[in-house]
Model the fold of this input.
Amino acid sequence: MTETKVRYGILSAATIVPRFAKGMRLTSNGEVTAIAARSLSKAKETARELDIPNVYPDYASLLESDEVDAVYIPLVNSLHYEYAEKALKAGKHAIVEKPFVLHAADAEKLFETASEKGLFITEAIKTPHLPLYQKIKQIVDSEKYGRIRMSECIHQGIVSERTDDLHGSCRDRNPGLLESR
Done:
């Protein structure tokens, strides 16, 4: 039995797109096959840089394509709902970059539409799938420390070579916030 790969189209040439494309290349069951952007020249440039075989002149053309099974939506936040809805109505599964949508009612509508059409939709968040969180889930499920009813995370972040660039203004407003590296 051969496994069919999910063919992803990307709706944008945003700076996060290379991370998604790289991550997809590390999987065995998905591949990026198409891209569209606000500018056709930017879509072509990004496709060339990331070795994406198909470029579409606009988002609607990509969503209509039979060569795409699912879409990754890293558009500006205010467009997440609109294009997630269009993707679902076009019969495509959707991964929507954070924040998923701007209003809870919109999320409910998207989940309802996905359910009605038998499609998958999710926010592009990896945290619940990281090994650390899987271990935490095992501990909580085991009730080793009793039945945990609530947990609160006050600050969550990453430290990388770009931390100073990413959090400089945060540190300026909150001295010492990132000093616990």
